[in-house]
């Protein structure tokens, strides 16, 4: 099936993209929305524009649109993003795991414009999905935190097996969803088996609000490093 992938650059949309490719589907487009400010209902902020570099690193074409924040505004931007290429694809990939709000709105959108919804992660175990990401060699960092217990030290941290165990403990203690799908934290993927080049962060800043105990890891400069061909 020819697909477009709703792509935020985070772990879930990247793993969903990987699963689609592994299943033999042809992903024609990465489709990304860039919120103009924090607080988007369905899309990542910050570092949304890094999707352009990720697309280049994977060798997949990308379409991107800016969106105002708000449910209606974001759905209008989604239609503006997808409709011009809807004749080239048969379905949309989403990385939704547990958010029925997100899943149902994307499903309704697909039905309205005549596309199938491909949601390979839907209602799967967040812990097993994290394990899959690590087993496959994806390099994932935390770029935003907004939940009690997730402090400034998590910003920019790469999630290896030790960090995952620590994150699991915090999530159990603080009743945080391990996927971060409620916005408790956001992620960015720098490398993995579908990347022909790795993203190297050359400059970044931490933005932290001590009063609300929330913060962002703002990437200011990133380069691409070629990877040796697989033997």
Highest CATH level, the class of the largest domain: Alpha Beta
Supply Rg. 17 Å
Overall pLDDT score = 93
Q: Can you give the helix content as a percent range?
A: 25-40%
> Count of helical segments?
6
CATH 4th-level superfamily of the largest domain: HUPs
Outline the structure in words.
The chain has 231 residues and is α/β, with parallel strands linked by helices. The chain has two domains: 2-118, Rossmann fold, CATH 3.40.50.620; 138-226, putative n-type atp pyrophosphatase, domain 2. 31% of the residues lie in helices and 29% in strands. The chain has helices spanning 11-22, 50-58, 71-82, 100-113, 126-136, 161-174, and strands at 2-6, 26-35, 62-67, 91-93, 116-118, 139-145, 185-191, 197-209, 214-226. The strands form two sheets. A five-stranded parallel beta sheet has the order 3-2-1-4-5, with helices on both faces. It has a four-stranded antiparallel beta sheet with strand order 7-6-9-8. Helix 2 links the parallel strand 2 (26-35) and strand 3. The radius of gyration is 17 Å and the shape is globular. The protein starts with a strand and ends in a 5-residue tail after the last strand.
Describe the secondary structure blueprint for this structure.
Layout lengths: L1 E5 L4 H12 L3 E10 L14 H9 L3 E6 L3 H12 L8 E3 L6 H14 L2 E3 L7 H11 L2 E7 L15 H14 L10 E7 L5 E13 L4 E13 L5
Parallel strand pairs: 1-2, 1-4, 2-3, 4-5
Antiparallel strand pairs: 6-7, 6-9, 8-9
């Amino acid at each position: 099936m020819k697909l477009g992938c709703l792509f935020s650059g985070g772990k879930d949309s990247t793993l969903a993209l990987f699963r689609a490719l592994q299943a033999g589907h042809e992903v024609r487009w990465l489709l990304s929305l860039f919120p103009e400010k924090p607080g988007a209902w369905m899309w990542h902020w910050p570092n949304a524009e890094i999707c352009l570099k990720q697309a280049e690193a994977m060798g997949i074409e990308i379409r991107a649109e800016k969106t105002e924040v708000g449910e209606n505004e974001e759905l209008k931007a989604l239609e503006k993003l997808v409709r011009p290429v809807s004749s080239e694809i048969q379905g949309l990939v989403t990385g939704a795991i547990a958010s029925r709000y997100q899943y149902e709105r994307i499903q309704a959108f697909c039905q309205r414009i005549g596309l199938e919804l491909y949601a390979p992660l839907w209602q799967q175990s967040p812990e097993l999905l994290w394990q899959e990401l690590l087993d496959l060699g994806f390099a994932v960092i935390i770029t935003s935190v907004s939940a009690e217990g997730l402090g400034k030290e998590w910003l920019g941290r790469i999630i290896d097996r030790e960090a995952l165990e620590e994150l699991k403990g915090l999530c159990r203690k603080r009743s945080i969803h391990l996927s971060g799908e409620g916005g408790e934290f956001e992620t960015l993927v720098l490398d993995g088996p579908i990347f022909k080049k790795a993203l190297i962060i050359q400059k970044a800043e931490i933005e932290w609000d001590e009063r609300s105990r929330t913060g962002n890891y703002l990437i200011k400069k990133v380069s691409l490093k070629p990877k040796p061909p697989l033997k």
